[in-house]
Protein 1
Amino acid sequence: MNRREAIAGALAITAGAPLPIPRRIVSLNSCLDAMLVHLADRSQIAALSHYAREAQASTVAAQARTLPYTWESAEEVIDLMPDLVLASQHSALATRNALKRLHVPVQRFKVPKSIDESLGQVRKVARLVGHPDRGEALVARIEAAIAAAKPAPGARRLTALIYQPNGFAAGPGTLVDEMMDHAGFDNVARRFGLKTWGNVGLERLLADPPQVLLVGVSAPGARSWADRIMTHPALKAVAGRMRQAPLPEKLLYCGGPVLIETAAAMARVRVQALKEGA
């Protein structure tokens, strides 16, 4: 597709006219990378973000390593002559502005705050890439995974907290909070006064520990901040009341197909914690 066709596509979006199926799609966000890999034809993917290749940040790293990528610069994206760019609200502003000036079609997505919002994004991306049937199939897989992660009716729930570098934790109004609820956890971030994302100091955690501490880890086997927190001497005082469980950080921020792995991981943690007497 040449630049004239890309401009025509952008004008069609503005006019509300039906769009042709894009043939050169660029993603600028790791969460959108995962959706694109699941929903688009391989031949449609002109490039993913560089984050897609990082195993600690992406659930599609293996596939991404066989596909082109960019570092999100305007020059790289423009040279690819895309007829559709998928961007997040955090994508580089300079790149988005440059694409806008050249009338390159850009679809920008917010961070989903709920499961329903995430599923809506899956359907939207599927329509944009011309495969709405794949969107519905992926939605069905996500819903099935979430349903499978739910404890049986009447089963005991556990209190839990997501804990990441600097005590960063997920509170109410976040996608991961809703996922915790579906997996049988009561998020204690509320009792620490968190609204959406915020910080919980180690001292406050020790004073009122949850039954399960879901520690965000950046990469399996790598020595990280999370490892140091999990072995902090002060935690020995609450070892009998609080169990720690690693949870890959790549499962905490994205919706879409990532939720399949998030749901399964949380369910495993809960089952193991109950076995250990939580």
Protein 2
Amino acid sequence: MSKLQCDVVRDLLPLYYDNVCSTATKREIEAHIATCSDCKMMLEKLKDQEYLSIEIIEKNKLEGNELKSIAGFWNQSKTRAFDKALLVAASVFSLLILVYLGLTQWNIVNVPTEVIRITDISQLRDGKIVYQVKMTDGFNVNQINYKVNSDGDVYMVPVRPLIKSKQYYHIGLANMYDFVDLDQIKANQGVGIRAVYYGSREKPILIWKKGTELPIASDTVEALFQFD
């Protein structure tokens, strides 16, 4: 029979279990629990509690790591979503800019012949053909495209963007005196000039054709083209 009582043994069991008691005390405790089922059960409970504690700690670690992984994945997802949204926004903005430029800057629409008025066709002293052009719809012309076919027909085609503008109408290509230099066109194209038209090929306005005698330009018109 052990000398130690159950109350004392139970107080010492944690020290025994942690192996921090003296050798003599350890022998006494082992002798006691060899004959006392209650104290032996208390020792088993200590072992179970430690196992559960370790298990809980590991479980908590695992759950913590899982939460960290989820948080990391969520942060990465948010970053990817933000980057994607930024890319989409930049693409949409670029597209809008291109659409705006296309509608307001790209000269892709021929001016209809119905709104073109050609008057005061004459010839300058240096041989150039001069004429007055006006767009009766009041909208500006951004560009004149020159086209010469193999027969020597010259087409001066006024073009605009899809969205028309009245800005600079009174001083721009839509309302002005202009000239055609037949000698320069012949030198550039390598063909003799047969006729000069203003407007698209579908329905052009004839300005001059070979054999036509034009009146001499007035002094006022002549003065418009004196650049010296």
Protein 3
Amino acid sequence: MRDPASPAGYMAAPAVLRMLRITLHAGFLALLLVGVAATLVSEPGPAVVYPALLISLCLGGLYLAGTVRERRAAKQQPGTPSSSRVPRYARFWLAGVTGLWVVLMMLSADFSWLAFALFFLHLHLLSTRHAVVAIVLLTGVVIAAQWERQGELQVPMILGPMFGAVFAVVMTVVYQSLYLEGVNQRQALEELRRTRSELARTQHQAGVLTERERLAREIHDTLAQGLSSIVLISRAAEASLDAGATNTARERIRTVQQAASDNLTDARRFVRGLSAAEGDPEFLVGSLRRTCASVEQQAAAQGIGLRCRFELDGAPIRMPAPYEVALLRAAQSALSNSLRHSSAGTAVVTLTFVGSEVALDIYDNGRGFDVDTALASAVERTDGTGFGLRALRERITALGGAIEIESEAGEGTVVGIRLPLLPFDDGTADD
């Protein structure tokens, strides 16, 4: 099915209008030739034939010149109603064409048929009132010429020209309606195309912003956290070297290497756009265990006595990859904050499968903080820090889950996450 907003779709109406115009011009010239042929066949004598041929040639040339000029004017002002772009010379041209026709009618009534085409020209170039007056006069000329030729006035001589005049008026009204409909259709479809383009641009911008938010969360929860740990541990290794504790420095350098290796793995997976689960049903549980071990190792490398353990409650089930990624990133972000800011001695990550939801709780016994103040300051920062809590909340709520952060000064911090367990086609229960 052809797209109605495509160029081929909305050029149908203008094509019809162009065909009507071409038919009118071709009809005028054809009727002129018919009149010339009829005059020659009737053999009225050289006194009529030669002047008729000469005037017919002048009329045909004048008509062609006018149509060419009119065509150029239409191209210069496309989409404008004809009555509002009639050139000033057009009425003089019409008067010349009509005058030559009247002279031909005085020579031979065989040119009466040209009146039908002249009706359309007057309706096209003159106002409605003036056109109707002109059509009445042209009809009178035709009736008079036929009367003079036959020597008596008959009913068909009156009805024929009158029906022709009425038909021309009706056809002109139809033509103008088609023209205006074509113009309105082109304008409406052009507006539709502009609206489509604007909608596509808006959707593209929305997609870009959404992807930017997603990239920001992924970078913060993986690369940024890993690089931050590398910086802190390398500083601790440098301090150990300055103090002459080469064994400690060596151990911390190994920790830096391991952290860099893990970060490189995350970066490669991030670039490839692979699913976090990679088809491993134990991905989330194993990843949370490794995250706790890594945080404890990093804390030891920095000289921080942080113990981190993982606890599983209930039988784990396979979940969609976005769920597993969200829960893993939440644990990584919360433990990173515990390591860097809380001065905690213990951190516990608990993954619970119960009923129709999965829960993840991250607790530390650190110094705590004011949650409202932290969230407000994160929005106001422009240096790229403080993004973790806001990004974590956005990630969880996007999956239809809920997140609660409880913390008070000196009371530690608990981050609680709840996600509904939706049906998953490939899910299996692990014994």
Protein 4
Amino acid sequence: MIIETIKTEGLSHLSYLIGSNGAAAVIDPQRDCESYVERARARGMQITHILETHRNEDFISGAAVLAELTGAQVWHGPNPAEPVRYAQTVREGDSLDIGSARIRVLETPGHTDDHLAFALYDTEFEQGAVGVFTGDALFVGDVGRTDFYPDRAREVSGLLFDSLRKLENLGDQTIIYPAHGAGSVCGAGMADREFSTIGHERANNPLMQITDRETFIATKVAENHYKPPYFSIMERLNTEGGSAMPRVAVPVPLDLAGLRDAGADRVIDTRSVTAFAGAHWPGALCLPVGMITAFAGWFLKETDRIVLVSDSMEEARAAATHLRRTGFDNVVGAFTKMVGAVANGQDFALTPMVDVACVKARIAEGADDWTLLDVRSIDEVEAYPIEAARHIYVGHLNEQWRDLDPGRAYTVMCASGARASVAAGWLKAQGFERVDVFLGSAGAWKADAE
């Protein structure tokens, strides 16, 4: 029996290939799913089943496409918000044998109504569960968010509590295989590793240590989570069945004339924050390649024509892949000569950086036309508030920029300067001309105060 973990970088998504005696199953496949077929064939295995733990909100599932490639059956849980057209419904107690591996279905609602876990047994050694694929119910160090049904907040939090008890009953020896690792938007407190057991989580996971149902419900209801607009796109595509990824991963290379004439709805600068600050295409959004999966979905529309400004075509390829895994396929090209263009006299924009002393001087002066804008999450703000700042979460600027006066000056801050740069780029793209970034931001502010 083999279990291979396939990690989708950026999304921190974990999918799995399980195989034994020439047969294989895939759990929660990513959209670019040819690699599962290649991995299975390299081991002399045929994929017969595709198992979905739930309808994912943060990426396009590859289940429908992989089923077309392989002829495999897709299993999905009961009670989805809309019928999942490409899957058959399975329920508690259903089971599947993949060689000596037996997979049993557990209904584990809470994160979503259709959520399943898949308990794994070795039929050659029937001594309890070997592992369990927990989806978004249980992570390493955290449990799933329960904010997708705001009108039923207490109910679904209670359902997750019950589902976690069901997972506990598999035994402390059971290895957990979650659908996400640290960095995912599906949880906030995950440990930076991808292996654990039920026993270890019972002993160390703060949410698993809450044994009173009402206390657990109150804790989950009090959590703060953000839901980017693109989640609704993922929900629709993962009901209908998403299409295959574009076959060519690298965008069309553009020269300067091509960049000007591309007719882009959005130019995305995937270079570093400092490179963007020093010189960028006027109107470009600052989205370093490592931040695309977290923030692109706040600021892009599904139909947007997108041009990338990158340091290299390899960086552009990675950026385009991240975008396409979250439903933004219309990447029409990439420009990689920004430094040369600036050196040859091309007009460019920049984003000034300011330090603690400058910001404190502005506060002391009490300027009537200046705002310190804090774009951290609400949890960060509550943990360490900056009294002089106005708070708007970076993602919420996608709409709330309209509540700001474009004639004012703004200094944008976060915890390090990265999200502030994203926010500053967005504001400048909306016509705000007097915007700079607080370098070091909350960390520098706190250090100065101490």
